[in-house]
């Protein structure tokens, strides 16, 4: 077992920490990431109220033909989730840009939203400057930093992200702020009741996966135990495409675990090929299949085929169906489950889930 500041992983074969006792949380979560996870429903409620009360009047009345959300890491995940929800109804394209340069030209009919928790992400700042120079209608969603300063100097509206913690801990705030803006513009269709019902469902889910729920009755703790010493591949399609990416990045950042994600239907055209070929080396593989309840018939058929292929391999896998309810409720519920699974996995591996020293080291190397 290690202290909370290093990255030595608990060796396989040793007895796993007890997730039902307070000692493991005191030892490995000194910053209280678990409390920040528990605050996600309240974060979403507050962000929806903020989006209604502080909608930027500068954006109203625009005849938009595309929405581009620029960001990196945890700040960009919210854009993926918004794009998946927006795709459920006829609307303009919602595109997520993760780069220094836009792959297409923007103009006055483009809405560009720069999403950066710190406000200092170099790639996002570059995209923001390009959008302003192109004359696009622009919005900044940030907690401050250089992005907030540049927006203020350029008279670009800002929606502040009032969440303490890691950028990835602000996913609920970012998501709901973005949805609130696009909803006011008529680009997505949400009501106050939709958001309230989705957040209420999250709070009910919390009662079953929080730290106080014993392991035998806690699906998040049980799944985390299964993932110890596993290489994880997360599959998702439809409204769970971005959710699969969120699971992958949370496993990376919280649990410091190797994990990848695949999207449906694309994965049936390539990644299924090695299923029946034994791996010559490396850890055991676990496939997690996130299946939304609100899927069209074509997507449901692809999920059926994927699970058949995993059984045929055979490949160790778990099917994790979405809950009953509207798309937003399903999406938030599956995000919450993934966040807790990655959190418990970190504790089982004897690691502090909050700091990301390798990411910080890569930033240092970039100068």
What is the percentage of strand-forming residues? 5-15%
**Might you state the CATH topology name of the largest domain?**
Rossmann fold
Q: Identify low-pLDDT runs.
A: 1-7
Number of strands: 9
Overall pLDDT, averaged?
Answer: 92
Largest sheet, spatial ordering of strands: 2-1-3-4-5
Biggest sheet overview: 5 strands, parallel
Into how many domains do the coordinates divide?
2
Brief summary:
The chain is 45% helix and 14% strand. The chain is built from 13 helices and nine strands. Helix 3 packs parallel to helix 7 (171-184), helix 3 runs antiparallel to helix 8 and helix 4 packs across helix 7.
Q: How would you characterize this protein structure?
A:
With 367 residues, the chain is α/β, with parallel strands linked by helices. It folds into two domains: 22-32 and 209-348, Glucose-6-phosphate isomerase like protein, domain 1 (Rossmann fold), CATH 3.40.50.10490; 54-190, Glucose-6-phosphate isomerase like protein, domain 1 (Rossmann fold, 3-Layer(aba) Sandwich). The protein is built from 13 helices and nine strands. The strands form two sheets. A five-stranded parallel sheet has the order 2-1-3-4-5, sandwiched between helices. The protein has a four-stranded parallel sheet with strand order 7-6-8-9, with helices on both faces. It is globular. It starts with 21 loop residues before the first helix and ends with a helix. The relative contact order is 0.15. The model is unreliable at 1-7 (pLDDT under 50).
């Amino acid at each position: 077992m290690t202290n909370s500041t290093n990255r030595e992983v608990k060796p396989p074969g040793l007895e796993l920490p007890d997730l039902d006792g307070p000692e493991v949380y005191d030892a490995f979560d000194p910053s209280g990431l678990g409390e920040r996870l528990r605050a996600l429903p309240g974060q979403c409620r507050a962000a929806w109220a903020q989006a209604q009360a502080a909608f930027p009047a500068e954006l109203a009345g625009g005849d938009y033909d595309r929405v581009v959300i620029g960001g990196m890491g945890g700040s960009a995940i919210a854009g993926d989730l918004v794009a998946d929800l927006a795709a459920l109804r006829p609307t303009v394209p919602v595109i997520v840009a993760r780069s220094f340069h836009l792959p297409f030209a923007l103009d006055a009919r483009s809405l560009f939203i720069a999403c950066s928790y710190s406000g200092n992400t170099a790639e996002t700042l570059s995209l923001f400057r390009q959008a302003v120079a192109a004359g696009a209608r622009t919005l900044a969603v940030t907690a401050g930093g250089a992005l907030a300063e540049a927006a203020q100097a350029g008279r670009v509206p800002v929606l502040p992200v009032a969440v303490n913690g890691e950028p990835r801990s602000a996913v609920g705030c970012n998501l709901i702020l973005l949805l609130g803006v696009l909803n006011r513009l008529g680009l997505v269709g949400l009501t106050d009741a939709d958001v309230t019902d989705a957040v209420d469902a999250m709070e009910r889910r919390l009662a079953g996966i929080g730290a106080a729920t014993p392991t035998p009755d806690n699906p998040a703790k049980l799944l985390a135990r299964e993932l110890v010493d596993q290489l994880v591949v997360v599959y998702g399609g439809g409204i769970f495409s971005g959710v699969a990416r969120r699971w992958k990045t949370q496993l990376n950042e919280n649990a410091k675990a190797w994990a990848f994600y695949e999207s449906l239907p694309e994965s049936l055209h390539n990644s299924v090929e090695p299923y029946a070929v034994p791996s010559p080396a490396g850890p055991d593989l676990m496939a997690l299949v996130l299946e939304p309840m609100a899927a069209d018939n074509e997507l449901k058929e692809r999920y059926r085929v994927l699970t058949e292929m995993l059984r045929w391999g055979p490949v160790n896998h778990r099917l994790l169906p979405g809950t009953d309810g509207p798309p937003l409720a399903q999406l938030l519920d599956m995000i919450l489950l993934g966040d807790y699974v990655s959190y418990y996995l970190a504790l089982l591996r004897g690691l502090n889930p909050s700091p990301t020293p390798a990411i910080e080291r890569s930033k240092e190397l970039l100068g």
